[in-house]
Amino acid sequence: MIEIQLTNHTLNETKCKNCYSYDTDLCLCGGRIHCEFEDKVYDETNGEIYLFFKYKCDKCGSTNRP
Ligand SMILES: [Zn+2]
Ligand SMILES: [Zn+2]
Prior knowledge:
Blueprint: E1 25-26, E2 32-43, E3 48-57
Antiparallel strand pairs: 1-2, 2-3
């Protein structure tokens, strides 16, 4: 599993240009949760494409999805 390197991110800001969605989410601890694209999986059985992201809080380091 690849960890987000938060040095590439703008910490403690609601807007982060290195995040996938540009907006960061608020963590329960009060920090900002950063998001990076991880993988794209195509499901042949139903034709759906699933996107996977990885998350990391810039304060408590939680990798839980917000
Ligand atoms: Zn970020
Ligand atoms: Zn946190």
